[in-house]
Design a protein that fits this description.
Blueprint lengths: L7 E8 L14 H15 L2 E10 L3 H16 L5 E8 L2 E2 L2 E3 L4 E3 H10 L4 E7 L28 E7 L9 E2 L4 E2 H13 L8 E2 H16 L11 E7 L5 E3 L6 E5 L5 E7 L5 E6 L5 E5 L2 E8 L4 E8 L4 E3 L5 E2 L4 H7 L6 E11 L6 E10 L3 E3 L2 E18 L2 E19 L7 E18 L9 E15 L5 E13 L7 E13 L1
Parallel strand pairs: 1-2, 1-3, 3-7, 7-8, 14-20
Antiparallel strand pairs: 4-5, 5-6, 8-12, 9-10, 11-13, 14-17, 15-16, 15-18, 18-19, 19-21, 22-23, 22-30, 23-25, 24-25, 25-26, 26-27, 27-28, 28-29, 29-30
């Protein structure tokens, strides 16, 4: 249903993957892009099916016939009309490339002039498209947004994918062209900067310009692709293109889901891309349904399937499957840490009666934990075996011990922006069984047991293959019951190195 004074919208969408000029490559996503534009305008742009005209790989004569058909169609409508032309394909500074010949710039403007619509909106997704606008105006900075007004203005607007000297790009990860991707995402609501449920032509230009500028900085060549706008409108208010609040829902990305976030419809062609900062909470508008989600940043890659059925549903890291190669980075970030095994080998240096050093071997297990102000805190358990020379009251021998510890371990980054270098601190308590074998009197003693506690500090270097190398120093206090004394106490220092598996 149209609002008061709102024009009825007629759409002509053209997707030409081929050019009449030999040597130009076939474009891969022109028909996909055309379908996305048609879909968003039919769903939330007020375009009826009977007001939709489209064609793929059209010739000059076919396009001319379509324009004539649209002119007759508009003449039969007894209300104001807004005409939208979308073109995806090859072009140069002289005109659009059709299947058999060029549509010159002057003829394109004459055809648009002959269409008797109150408002005309032209989207050109092609190389050098800025040269085909009405006046070649280059707007490369933000401008103040007028307030939305339902008495729509009249005139013509060109929104071109490039300047008059730039190429337009198709992007594999987006499965479409860069310009149309952000155009359609903006029309679905990402461009609604004042959150009034309307996307205006001013908002869509500012959104597309900003997002394309950021994206091209990530391309290997850092090639520029700057959209151009030419607005020639008369009347009050601004031109409303879509009303995303009508059929979309708001999806919230939690603070631990950050980096490049791609959402692709499981049954559909639409892809949404968001570049999100860590710890920020961001919301985007999407169509209800099931989405494949992929998240990639410096520390991890993850993917999953999510159902987005109502407003304000949240995606958090627990809904993603983290790629194995990047689990160690998630560990270091302290977000969602899977259980891990540790293996360590080192030197056990004791004091009386374990006055000399000897080897020890330790195996441990670390559970998931919580992130507290940047520190990853998690419970641990470990078991170790050791062997030390004995020197006590003039006697010598060998002490063999086996013990276990339960504890809490905290890890944190050594450097704020570096995810590979981490410190470790832990507190542990447990028990140990000791067997002493004397070389001289007294004779061999039965095994004794007692309690122990330990504090350790360490360093961990994270690797991209899901393992980590760790070095640590631990101080232990051990209280063992002995036959000659009711309690024998000694302390030990351990220096070790190992792997986190």
């Amino acid at each position: 249903m149209l609002r008061a004074n709102e024009a009825r919208t007629v759409l002509l969408a053209i997707g030409n993957k081929s050019s009449y000029k030999l040597g130009l490559p076939q474009l891969e996503f022109t028909q996909t892009d055309m379908g996305r534009v048609k879909s968003v305008l039919q769903r939330i742009g007020g375009v009826r099916k009977e007001d939709t005209f489209f064609g793929s790989d059209v010739s000059y004569q076919q396009l001319r016939s379509m324009i004539q058909q649209i002119q007759r169609h508009i003449a039969a409508i007894r209300e104001p009309v807004k005409f939208v032309l979308y073109y995806s394909g090859h072009s140069d500074s002289e005109g659009l490339h059709l299947l058999d010949r060029e549509l010159p710039r002057a003829e394109l403007h004459q055809w648009l002039q002959d269409v008797k619509a109150k408002t005309k909106l032209v989207f050109l997704d092609s190389c050098f498209a800025g040269a085909l606008t009405a006046k070649g105006i280059k707007m490369e900075t933000s401008f103040a947004l007028p307030k939305a007004h339902f008495d729509e203005p009249s005139g013509i607007v060109f929104l071109a994918a490039t300047s008059e000297s730039e190429f337009a790009y198709e992007i594999g990860e987006l499965e479409g062209s860069l310009f149309t991707h952000y155009l359609v995402s903006g029309l679905y609501g990402q461009a609604d900067s004042n959150d009034d449920g309307l996307v205006t032509i001013d908002e869509i230009y500012q959104y597309v310009f900003r997002e394309m500028k950021l994206y091209t900085l990530t391309l290997p060549s850092r090639s520029q692709q700057r959209p151009q706008v030419d607005i020639n409108l008369k009347g009050q208010g601004t031109l409303v293109v879509t009303r995303p609040q009508k059929e979309t829902v708001r999806l919230i990305l939690g603070p631990e889901v950050y980096g490049t976030v791609l959402l692709a419809q499981e049954k559909g062609a639409q892809i949404f891309r968001v570049d999100k900062a860590e710890h920020a909470v961001t919301s985007i508008r999407v169509l209800p349904g099931r989405y494949k989600i992929a998240v990639s940043n410096t520390y991890y890659r993850g993917h999953g399937l999510v159902d987005v059925l109502k407003d304000n549903e949240t995606i958090d890291l627990a809904q993603l499957k983290i790629d194995r190669d990047f689990q160690s980075f998630l560990v270091s970030k302290g977000h969602v840490l899977g259980e891990q095994w540790t293996l360590a080998l080192g030197i056990h240096q004791g004091v009386r009666p374990l006055s000399n050093n000897g080897p020890f071997l330790e195996i441990g297990y670390q559970w998931s934990g919580v992130n507290i102000r940047g520190l990853w805190v998690r419970p641990t358990v470990s078991a170790a075996v050791r062997q030390n020379p004995l020197q006590y009251r003039g006697n010598s021998g060998i002490s063999r011990g086996m013990g276990g510890l339960l504890g809490i371990m905290a890890t944190g980054r050594l450097f704020a922006e570096d995810h590979r270098h981490w410190f470790i601190a832990s507190m542990n308590g447990g028990a140990e069984i000791e067997q002493r074998n004397w070389n001289t009197a007294p004779p061999d003693e039965p095994a004794t047991q007692g309690s122990k506690f330990a504090f350790s500090l360490g360093y961990r270097y994270l690797r991209a293959d899901s393992t980590a190398i760790h070095l640590f120093f631990r101080r232990e206090g051990i209280f063992l019951e002995g036959p000659e004394e009711s309690m024998i106490a000694f302390s030990a220092s351990l220096i070790g190195a190992g792997l986190v598996l």
